[in-house]
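note to self: the first set is below, dont mix up w the second
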Amino acid sequence: MAKAKVKNAADDRSVAVYARKSKVTETGKSIEIQKEKCIALACAQFDVAENDILIYEDEGKSGFYADRPQYKKMLRDIENNK
């Protein structure tokens, strides 16, 4: 198993999770499970607290198109070094 990466003290970049589900289903749990798994991985890999992770999610949006509000916001935040 690979060693977990530790966030460098001089590295002030944020850690983000982007989750997307193309269709709204009756259960609505798919996107929650995605977020939980990604958050757990980010916490383990980057030594950050869960409440320090930026969450972006688009529900009911196809991944085929880039016209997803939270996806665009995430890209803007990256460009602005958030």
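second set (the one i keep forgetting abt)
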Amino acid sequence: MSRNSWSRWCMNLPGSDCAGRVQLRDGRLHIPGEVYERVLLNCPSLALLARDGRWQLLPLFGGAGGLLIKIRNARGDRVVEAQEFFRSQGFEQGHEPVEFDLNLEPEGAAFQLVMQSS
């Protein structure tokens, strides 16, 4: 997906900052099928970055490498094995599940992972 295509797509997202919600469980990022199709546009992989005290999720297209997004069930839910990234950020396996909003950052072609308050 080109930068221009990404910009056009971003403008078509709903008005709120939150484009979707994902959950971290046991070092794995769980992505509902609807969020995967609508927000991540069926991309095959993603990158997770820790930048300026924030976490970012970057969809990767065109064989760019990264963490594979695997099919989890028949509903189309997805999972990303990201134990190494989250362990380096202080989240050990066995940690309570945590919900994150995916907030669009169009200038960086990324989503910021924003932890939901309890």
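remember for set 2: Residues 7 and 106 are 7 Å apart (CA to CA).
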